[in-house]
């Protein structure tokens, strides 16, 4: 019964845009990816420069969600550390040659470069994080504790 309902929903949505999992690349439906500036830029680039118009609805499918979440966390940390390195270099540059306009420009270029570098492994955020199934997990944990106590 549940699959029937899901198939019906899928058919309705498919009429609009085909879903595409950003993690495994399959056409499975899943959690909506937030259409941010980076994705908009990639879309623009594909359409205007490469002449490809792939208007997929970007999702993360159920099978990939756990892996995606881990990778996304790692990505966010990595991006932050890239930016910190960029800021340190820029700060150093300005500190070494204070008042030098070129140092400021170059420092800014380093930060921009580090940001672009972090986009190589870009993983977008989700439109909305699913509610963690704490009920089931909590239950399992309680069960484990109970077993230990007995
Ligand atoms: Zn997937």
Descriptive keywords:
mainly alpha, 3 strands, elongated, 150 residues, binds zinc ion, single chain
Provide structural commentary.
The chain has one domain. The protein has 150 residues and is mainly α. A 3-stranded mixed beta sheet has the order 1-3-2, with no helix packed on it. It contains 5 helices and 3 strands, in the order H-E-E-H-E-H-H-H. The protein has helices at residues 2-14, 37-49, 65-96, 101-118, 134-149; strands at residues 19-21, 30-32, 57-61. Zinc ion binds at residues 21, 23-24, 26, 28, 61, 63-64.
Topology:
Layout: H1 2-14, E1 19-21, E2 30-32, H2 37-49, E3 57-61, H3 65-96, H4 101-118, H5 134-149
Parallel strand pairs: 1-3
Antiparallel strand pairs: 2-3
Helix pairs in contact: 3-4
Zinc ion is lined by residues 21, 23-24, 26, 28, 61, 63-64.
Approximate strand percentage: 5-15%
Number of structurally distinct domains: 1
User: Which structural class do the helices and strands define?
Assistant: mainly alpha
Number of helices: 5
Radius of gyration: 22 Å
Q: Strand count, sense and closure of the main sheet? A: 3 strands, mixed
Q: Quick recap of the structure?
A:
The protein is mainly alpha-helical and 150 residues long.
